[in-house]
Amino acid sequence: MALIDVGGAIRHGEELDTPAVDAWLRRLLPDLAAGLPEVTQYSGGASNWTYRLRYANHDLILRRPPAGTKARSAHDMVREFKVQDALKPVYPVVADMIGLCTDASVIGCDFYVMRRIEGIIPRANLPKELSLSEAQVRQLCTNTLDQLIALHQVDVHAAGLEKLGKGAGYCKRQVDGWSDRYEKARTWNVPSYKGVRAWLKAHTPEDVKTCVVHNDWRFDNVVLDPADPTRVIGVLDWEMATLGDPLMELGNVLAYWIEDADTGLLRKTRRQPTHLKGMLTRKEVVAYYQQQTGIQIEHWAFYEVFGLFRVGAIIQQIYYRYYHKQTDNPAFRNFWLLNWAIWRRCRQVIAADTRTMTQQGAR
User: Fold this and answer.
1) pLDDT tens profile 85-141
2) Residue 356 and residue 242: Cα distance in Å, rounded?
3) What is the pLDDT of residues 185-241, one digit of tens each?
4) In sequence order, which residues have a C-beta less than 8 Å from that of residue 108 and are 6 or more positions away?
5) Would you tell me which of 154, 219, 293, 296 could form a disulfide with 122, CB atoms 3.0–4.6 Å apart?
6) Does residue 183 carry a pLDDT above 50?
7) Dist CA 297 CA 237 (whole Å)
8) pTM here?
9) Which residues pair with 234 in a beta bridge?
10) How far apart are alpha carbons 29 and 314 in whole angstroms?
């Protein structure tokens, strides 16, 4: 594994019409070096397809939606481009946007191009060339959380993003929306989540505030400075960004936060290096966020269970495409098994919360 991810071979069935893209790009960047770019594809994404276009004088990234059936609100390239374009002046770790294409005659779908941020993307395991001490791992962890907190403090009006979301009532809309998405993507071999969904609806709180949320915040969506791998210099994948409740975002973040102490199939869901010595535990992350923001958290179990259920729904949407042969990516073959592991963890959190509430009520 290279220290800096430069992409690899393009997956079968996901080839890019490079001449068409090149012709379109030359209208935006007249100084592009002669010849077609070297094209590679990033393997980390299970949703939108991401390509590197390397010219002699420009290093670019192209994002496009996948082929096949998809949720109506998902994979919106226009929205993703506009969110980043608006955020860049007030949140510098966003990439520079180059251009948006909505002309289907170019490659058959909307896509956008941005400048590549050269750095380290911390995936499930850090590159073998990168050796961080326990103190450095902790610094990386808190620096990444600090960038999340900074996003939640962005002035929505200054960024011109007042219409990015619907505002108050976000928690309820998220529970209802993801429940509906899961039901539409169900296959015969996955849990129904009926009990989990009923519990979420019964315990949905009011929003604590409304702010910009990334909605897919993970270590493999940040870019680290090669000269100081604890420093975040880029945040990627803004597909699901909206205006929402920051604690819902934190619950989503921790749904991907697999600790070294976790066991069984859950450990196989790890996509980021949260198992390393020095990383905060899930409980410590909640405490750190609360300390840094001053936001009071009255019923954390709700946000934890919601985050887990949402991951289950995302996994199922992806697996649905594989099950119905809309993609043949072998990485998706066993996503149905992961869904059972997530469902069991939801039930464990609910059971523990129920015991706690019962004990408190008996006092």
Assistant:
1) 999 999 999 999 999 999 999 999 999 999 999 999 998 899 888 999 999 999 999
2) 33
3) 999 999 999 999 999 999 999 999 999 999 999 999 999 999 999 999 999 999 989
4) none
5) 219
6) yes
7) 27
8) 0.90
9) 223
10) 36
Output the six-digit token pair for 92: 């510098």
Strands (E), 134-287: 211-213, 222-225, 228-235, 242-244
Cβ atoms of residues 114 and 100 within 8 Å: no
Cα within 13 Å of Cα(255), Cβ side: 30
CA dist., res. 272 & res. 255, Å (int): 12
Domains of the chain in start order, with CATH, are: 18-115 (3.30.200.20), 134-362 (3.90.1200.10)
With a CB cutoff of 8 Å and minimum separation 6, the contacts of 174 are 244, 248, 306, 310
Between β-strands 59-64 and 49-54, what pairing exists: parallel, antiparallel or unpaired?
A: antiparallel
Range 269-287 average pLDDT: 94
Q: What is the pLDDT of residues 11-45, one digit of tens each?
A: 999 999 999 999 999 999 999 999 999 999 987 55
β-strands 59-64, 111-115 pairing: antiparallel
Burial class (CB in 10 A: 0-12, 13-18, 19+), 327: buried
68: which residues sit within 8 A by CB, 6+ positions away?
321, 324, 326, 327
DSSP 101-164: E--HHHHSS-EEEEE---SB---SS--TT----HHHHHHHHHHHHHHHHHHHTS-HHHHT-TTS
Q: Is 196 exposed, middle or buried (0-12, 13-18, 19+ CB in 10 A)?
A: buried
155, with CB counted inside 10 A (0-12, 13-18, 19+), is: exposed
Q: Which residues pair with 39 in a beta bridge?
A: 53
Q: Tell me, what DSSP letter sits at residue 339?
A: H
